[in-house]
Task: structure prediction
Amino acid sequence: MVALAAFACFGIISSLAKGSVDIPWTEAIEVFGGDASGAYGQILYNIRLPRTIVALLVGMNLALSGAILQAVMRNPLADPHIIGVSSGAGICGIMVMLVFPAYAYLITPAAFLGAMGAAVLIYILAWKNGISPLRIVLAGVAVSAFFGAGISALLIFYSDRVHSALMWMVGGLSARSWPQVEILWPYTLAGTLLALGGARHLNILQLGDELAKGLGLRVGMTRILLSAIAALLAASAVSVVGLLGFVGLIVPHTARLLIGSDYRWLLPATALLGAGTVTLCDTVARLAFAPVELPVGIIMAVIGAPFFLFLLRREL
Result:
């Protein structure tokens, strides 16, 4: 846990210090010590600090969402992006963004409803005398493809407004500032506390449905409530940065290798590792082809796609 906390701090410090203008440590210390009047102070407070906070919160949200879904669905390949939860959030969010731009403040609630609807639809399609990991993956891929087609149709019908949605489609942190921090942090705080409160139930779900029922757990209701928490975390992240994939797949697995499967420890470890991963990948995205800035979603896809194939071959 200490090592993961140090990794998260390293990602945050790298995000603050590195960019088109490198800020020396001495200058950064002076800025945070109270002297924010110079050029470095403006860069840190108005550009890099809010972007770093957004990256941190998004990393926590998506990683926690993936960890919860993997336990609820008993599927090591579950991830908000892969199984279609993010796509459900995305189609509702982009509908508000393109069709009803005057109601932009409704993007997060609409994304939550879309994410929850996608999760319910996946359950319905995957259910056949119980739920198997393979059926969940296949149902999730189908749901994701269906919602992806809907998003493409919206982009075609509203092509005059498509520019604002392009970065959102890939998943990027460009131009994210204090308004996005204000939108995101209440959902992160509420979702994280609810997730930590449900850690014991997540541990019981790993034992199997029959044993969980024998221990007095209302399995169906517990799955619905925990799925709602995962949908809330994923939807809030998607509403701010767009369809950022693979965070919820890579991070929980890596944390599980380091910490184990006890969700009382796994969830905090996942949150720390998610924060460090997204902040560090965003720094790489800014520096890799400078002065051209890549969306962080491209970096995550480059890392996540081979990781997903590795897990697919190992698990199936």
Notes: Residues 2-315 form a domain with the ABC transporter involved in vitamin B12 uptake, BtuC fold (CATH 1.10.3470.10). The two ends are 31 Å apart (CA to CA).
